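User: Hello, beginner here. Can you help me understand these amino acid letters and fold codes? It all follows right here:
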Amino acid sequence: MHANVGNILVQVIREPGRMRTLVPKDWDDLVRLGRAADLLARLSYLAQRHDLWASIPAEVQRHLVSAQALVARQHRELGYELQEIDLALKGLGVPVVLLKGAAYVAAEQAAAQGRMVSDVDVLVPRGCLAQAEAALMLGGWTSRAKSDYDQRYYRTWMHELPPMVHIQRGTVLDVHHAIMPLSARVHPSSALLLAAARPVPGFACLQVLAPIDQVLHSATHLMHEGEFEQGLRGLVDLDALLQEHGPDPGFWSGLVARAVALELTRPLFYGLRYVQAMFGTDVPAAVLAELVGAPGASPSQWVLRMMDGLFVRALSPAHELTSDRWTPLARGVLYLRGHWLRMPPGRLTLHLLRKLLPARQGA
């Protein structure tokens, strides 16, 4: 497979030492791509971690310092937001599992370094969804979905409530009861995920997914999405999680079996394939061989060739420097694929028509 290693941002994330040899044009491209991919602060972290700061031109340092300051502010604000969520939901007596960026920051994981965070995503047992929503409304959050259709769409077909926004702070909270929609083709067990979750020190009810489940959720969220504006950032998350958890006893030996149990072998296959291709992430050959033989993991060769062409383009930053004439088509196909995986054909057709018609009427 031809990975887009000509992309200067991918090259530097893969080998941070390249910063020592960059010329002004490279730095200009790197800053542009880093900003487009929400990875400027991650570059700053990598430069400091690898003792490369002195190799960076002063004008580039200013961009990186600014990005670092923004991320630091987001993390501080997130810390306060998590305290408020914990306060609102601890009376339910059920686990509230943080997902994605909020989890990485709360648990002080490697993936949090330089990671921008906006919305907060949590997972609660489905049977407690109504109580959780009521408790959050008392805490100042309200539903963001205004139309009856959007309310019905989320509550009938999706894996989450309509997004909730705090009436004073404007922060957005997504409350999930599963990591895949009810109408999706695969149905990872929320009970399995919740049972293995681990508490976050300092909070009454907040938890994070177990290490293997974090990797599986990261791969699934990335590979089943229909929008890839932050696709490369998602791949950076996956790379960081694998590097952090890979040395844990039992991680690699249990990864594929857990993917089978959660029906997530296909997104794990794609996730490992592209994180290896783009960043050279170390994945044991025995694990890849086991995964290829797992149920539903490996697509046919012609499908795989097509997906390589689509994902390599879509996982690059949404910028003209990394786009070719086929990139819009690749993003469009993967957008439709994401919806196809989330809904049966009839429901998908009705949903897309419902979304397109108001747009045309308002044009």
